Amino acid sequence: MTTSKSPGRPAKRTMWDIASHFYADAVADMAVHPGVRDQLREPQRVLNVSFPVKMDDGSVRMFTGWRVHHNIVRGPAKGGIRYAPGLTLEDVQGLAMMMTWKTAVVGLPFGGAKGGVACDPHRLSHDELERITRRYTLEIIPLLGPERDIPAPDMGTDERVMAWIMDTYSLVKGYSVPAVVTGKPVAVGGSHGRRRATGRGVVFVLRELAERVGLDLRGARVAVHGFGKVGSTVAYMLYHVLGSRVVAVCDSRGGVYHPDGLDILDLQRYKAETGSVVGFPGGEAVSSPEMLTVPCDVLVPASVECVITEENADRVQARVIVEAANAPLTPEADHILRERGVAVVPDVLANAGGVTVSYFEWVQDLQSFFWTEEEVTQQLKRVMTRAFDRVYTLASEANVSLRTAAYRLAISRVATAYELRGFYP
Ligand code: GLU
To answer: How much is the pTM?
Structure first.
């Protein structure tokens, strides 16, 4: 097993390790053609790009980026673009593999991809970000296209970055091609409801699970790790719509806790004013790691990968975990929590609401016919609820975890596509 090591720090699991581990675990008990099994272990295509960008001070800096197609047997490659310092090819490959399972588990006609640039968007100016984005788009353009590969936002990228990608691609083509990227602003072909889609999807699957395990979400104690687009939507919906007690939230700077629940509307206003949840007067300060182990019924990790490891998994008090982020649990943590009987809705199902509304955006762009937010949300609910039901039934019948069931469902759909299309030549 490969791990990335940096001097003086413990070996860190790469996303590729994690995705490969969960894949190998699930496929081991499946009757999948050995050729297909081996193919799915590797990414189908990897493009490594390295390019110069003129910085605001007149200097020229080199950047490295990637676009990986893990698998495209079920349709065009689909997946986000991540801008993060220290991003590696292993991370992008792992995230691309997760996208293959994510699109398959909710039944979207897409394959799995991911891309990214190793850079820190918080330390770049607006103009530098634009130049990096446009140059990166030009470098990966041989792979892109509405019928080939459709990027979307991921950590460190947003609607604005998607608009630049769409514009750069369109300028090369000579006409507007909105369907080449999703997660765009509504004014240039984006979909209503895309921004909140991942958070909404998380809440839809949590509601389904809560009903099955007899957990009343009204008054239930919920901790949300991460207060970005996804975490704040989840906290808002649980607090405002479902009447849960959101007892703890955090962001990259720290967290806040109140055993009776936080006023999420006040907290959202506070964060908008100060830039962080830290110092919010409606609760006491907790550190981000402490927040994962506060007394609660539901834990929603919605920040970054690997926040729950073998070091803290036995101290998690929640009975239900919904993986709003990609890979928030290491395989070791997943094992510990399974042994302890904690129900974990895996990332490939739990956060698939984002790519589901990306699919709706792509469909709307191709048809130049746009839906209302109500229509988008209704269709999202239908897709998420149906996928959850399939996964839950499979897990109960085979007496396996929701993760194993989700992976088995996804792998079998990809394998079926291979068998029907055949091997060529
Ligand atoms: N980056 C998101 C994810 O990890 C969305 C991908 C998409 O919409 O294509 O699921």
So the answer is: 0.96
